[in-house]
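Lab manual, section 2.4: Encoding a predicted structure.

Procedure: take the sequence of the chain (302 residues), apply the prediction step described in section 2.3, and record the output as structure tokens. A sample record is shown.
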Amino acid sequence: MFLTIVAHNERFRMVKRRFQHSMKTIHNCFHEVLGGMMEFAREVVGPTSFDGTPNTSERFRRLKEIFPGAIGALDGTLIHAVVPSDQQARYRGRGRGECYQNVLEICDFNMIFTFVWAGWEGIAHDSRVLREVVFNPTSGFPFPPSNKYYLCDAAYTCTLGFMTPYRSTRYWLADFRRRRALTKEEMFNHAHAQLRNVIERAYGVLKARFPILKQMVPYPFQVQKDVVIACFAIHNFIRKCNIQDQLFMEYDENTMFAAAEEQQEGSNEIEVDEMQWSSQDNEYMTNLRDQIANQLSSNASN
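Recorded output:
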């Protein structure tokens, strides 16, 4: 019954007809399973290693040689939300008519989510969400070791633990379809986008499997947050069990997934919040980015 609700977005009345149980039974079962899923999520959503998940493809090995310190990709995504009318202004983010919650996630290079933080208003910028979560001692944010980092898009600050692309330079994979990378900054951005694209493909699998994330049911908002986390937990379970899943197979192959959606969700990237990141940390990661870009340029000219 729970999977019928979250994976097929069926309302309680439809579930009642299908399983021939009372509305009260459906309601009780749903919330009982949802509570269990929160416990389950603590087991299956979390970092297992800072070395990343093995991937044997030649393309992955080449990209990992360019970014040897990368342990995953970090990004935010918008999940449809139903909120009271007096709160809707805060959840109508990024010029959209619908309401959304902003969810921060990290995934490894095998499309397994290692951190999820749900419930932020749709109007909240990605960099603000990250800053608040990182400096929240109760969030359990898995800050990477000093020699490791997450790949992030240009909405975030290039600082210790977080490597972003060059701004004001082509970045999204669709931008390189007709014209190859020319400058060292473009070469870096193209390689960065190819490896970071894993989180866009993971989103594709998640939202294709759980249509409730695109059209949320008007549960209390805390329940909506829990439903989102439960979907991430089921996603991870399927991937970790190496189940031959059609969606994962499709999005494993489709490296150009959601180029248009990437640009739409990242269109406000100029609003980066630089506060609370030290200048030394910023300088360290900026210098490391320049080193990688220079090496790419040097390899291309040889």
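Check your result against the sample. Residues 1-44 form one domain.
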